[in-house]
Amino acid sequence: MFKRAFDVVVSLAALILLSPLLIGAALAIKLGSPGPIFYRAVRVGRHGVPFKLYKFRSMIVNADRLGAGITTANDARITGIGRFLRRTKLDELPQLINVLRGEMSLVGPRPEDPRYVALYSPEQRRVLAVRPGITSLASVRYRHEEALLEGADWEQVYLQTIMPDKLAIDLEYVERATLLSDLGVLWQTLRAVFR
Question: How far separated are the first and last CA of the chain, in Å rounded?
Answer without folding.
Answer: 33
